[in-house]
Please model this.
Amino acid sequence: MPLTLSLAQSAPNALETSLLVIALAPDEPLSAALAELDAQQLGGVIGRTIARRDFRGGRDEQLHVSGAERGVLRVLLVGVGKPADRAVALRRAASVAARFANKIGVSDLTFVAADADARAVENVAVGLDMGAWKYTDMQTQPPNGDRRATLERATILASDTTAEGLLAGEALAHGYAIARRLAMMPGNVCTPDTFVETANDLAARHGLRVTVLGRAEMEREGMGSFLCVAQATPEDPKLITIEYRGAADNVKPVGLVGKGLCFDTGGISIKPAERMEWMKFDMCGAAGVMGAMEAIARMNLPVNVVGVIGATTNMPSGTAVKPGDVVRASTGKTIEIINTDAEGRLVLADCLAWIRRYEPTAVIDAATLTGAIVISLGHNAVGVFGSDAGLVQEVLAAGKRASEPGWELPLWDEYREQIKSDVADIKNTGGRAAGSITAGWFLREFTDGYPWVHLDVAGTAYSESDLVALPKGPTGTPTGTFVEFVRGRVR
Ligand code: BES
Ligand code: MN
Ligand code: ZN
Model:
């Protein structure tokens, strides 16, 4: 359940809160209002704490101080460091604070940061909601008495109390929550049908149009690339198109495409058993499309957006596609399968070809595509590839604003050599060297007719260890990049 968020004018004197969170940069003094509250209600403890330099405002720094018997019950100082972008830093500080609130078991907090404009409020709202997020659908809850409270309500103190920032933050937070929930759901619970149900739910709530192709329809479309990945699973694969219309009918849409592998065993080129369970997250690109459609619809953005999700499960069986097999994509291109574990690009090939019929002005796809991107960029940057330099810059800027920074890798012609096949037009892997780039090149083969950018989120869409701001599991990436990109097109 998402947090209930509200805004209030900064008048902390009359404040009643279980936890007052004060976000501070290094050497930032308390505001006059907070200093007064400190003196009147808390005996000056915050001022002394800062004067003694017990708390210095560094990034992720946290200091918990006990408060008064009534009014402000507890205080948490959170550091924002010296950031290039203050709103991005506040989002992180807000997540840290919400996680802390859940840890000690308070159900409401008040967050205050100096000079919070609409964009800062938006980021704090998103950060609070994301830090408080938990996936408990599959766990039996302990009896009420034994359980710590969870954070349910948060108030953001801001000088500017226009609703704009809060509404945008709530819209984004809902999008992120949908993406993270889908991602966290186990592979036997989140199936291609789950994506269809989620899309239909979005459609019902926001008046979107949904089109679904199953195995039979994809066969009719000649989508041999997508279908070969799905030929060993009894689950019906789904190619889902979601259309949001916020602008006039004659305005061409932007396209968002997501890899939705509900589970990736590798198929006949099977993955090692160790840590294979993490491959339930191989649908984070698709989850990001779903989350972005939710946020965009909630924001009522005046643009047209078409989202495409390719959902299936990569399994080994007697009917599975084998290394050496040749398949034909819907564009007519033939593909030699070298490794059945390079399945995401096969699914996306037919999705990228499909979206062309919507005449998009630009297409961004996101996929947990390669382990190699984790080797190149680790867990702190999205791999960005594209056929259009301007669009690449646009997406890089969007990722920065969204706290999901990316880094461009080259799609030079020379790399194209690595996916030439002896028997077919192309092959689905290009060897170990530059594995993320050759995967990007493979996708590019199916992007005729529109400017295109590919996001490899294999290192950033989920975390296998606890982070400071978020628990291990899905981070929500690439939801925010998609949304910021679309918002950027409106401005
Ligand atoms: N889903 C994986 C990529 C992946 C790896 C995502 C690690 C998240 C974490 C993808 O389908 C895959 O298996 N890629 C192969 C490609 C190879 C066979 C060319 C890989 O990265 O090993
Ligand atoms: Mn794979
Ligand atoms: Zn995969």
Notes: The pocket of zinc ion (ligand 3) is lined by residues 261, 264, 282, 343-344 (CB under 6 Å). The mean pLDDT is 97. The longest helix spans residues 164-184.
